[in-house]
Design brief:
By secondary structure, the protein is an alpha/beta fold. Helices cover 44% and strands 14% of the residues.
Amino acid sequence: GISRDLAHAGEVLSAAGLRHAELQFVWDKEVGDHGAAEVQRSQELKGRYGLTITCISRHVFAGLPVMLTEPGDGAYQRHLEGRAGCVRLARQLDCPLVRVMSFRKEMIIFGFDGAEQWVASDGSWGRLLTLFEPAVRLAEENDVTLVVETGNNGMINSGALGRRLIDDLGTRRLKILWDIPNTLYCAE
């Protein structure tokens, strides 16, 4: 949040004695959309200011309706391409983490004793797992870790649901980026 100008952000961080930075927008582009020359410039500035890039953060999957999104959809594919660009950038900048979001929230995900037939968004959890699998596979193949932010407007809005997502996907390459205000808003 300091500046989209990475040189200026590096100067501010350096002056404050800080060395860790999360990148979301650099210059006029969202992370993952930069060409080779821009990545090279980012690497140079990272070295000049002694920065450690802690996370490549893009709103991958944010706002996509989980029940209306199919793996072949154009919007879903664009999000996957953006995520792939983020994974490449993370590797180029020696960054271990890539943030993703968790699709748009279905109000009631689970139910039992009849509630699953009347009020739950039947199948939304299974669909979430299906839509997350390609992202997890890419992270595993590229030795980076995905972090899913707990968002008050996303399917993962609590630590408990985050833990369940990790367990159900059976991966060590997915962690939770715990946004405390978001989870407080969702009564955690």
